[in-house]
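Progress note, sequence design subtask.
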């Protein structure tokens, strides 16, 4: 039943509304990943990513989409975390943060 959440018409409608709202503020200038959750789900694992989008006019919008994680990656992360593999166990997805500047398009003469 969890895979049906991707095809929920209310989620699609909300996403389209948010994209239209962003385009009304001049478009994105910077994307910032604020955090991520551990993968959830047995057959169709998903993870929530919190993203801030800074607009060209200074407006900031938050998104928290559920993104599908490939099954082998999610399960290998879970097994390594459960076994206490040092490199994987020390990573906390809630503390992962980075930002990216959106490249400007070229203006044609």
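Output:
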């Amino acid at each position: 039943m969890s895979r049906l959440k991707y095809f929920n018409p209310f989620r699609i409608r909300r996403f389209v509304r948010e994209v239209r709202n962003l385009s009304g503020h001049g478009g994105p200038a910077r994307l910032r990943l604020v955090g991520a959750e551990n993968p959830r789900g047995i057959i169709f694992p998903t993870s929530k990513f919190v993203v801030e989008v800074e607009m060209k006019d200074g407006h900031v919008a938050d998104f928290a989409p559920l993104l599908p994680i490939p099954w082998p990656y999610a399960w290998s992360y879970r097994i390594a975390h459960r076994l206490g593999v040092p490199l994987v166990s020390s990573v906390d997805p809630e503390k992962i943060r980075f930002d990216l500047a959106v490249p400007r398009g070229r203006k044609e003469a």
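Helices lie at 9-23, 71-83, 86-89. Work on this subtask will continue into the next period as scheduled.
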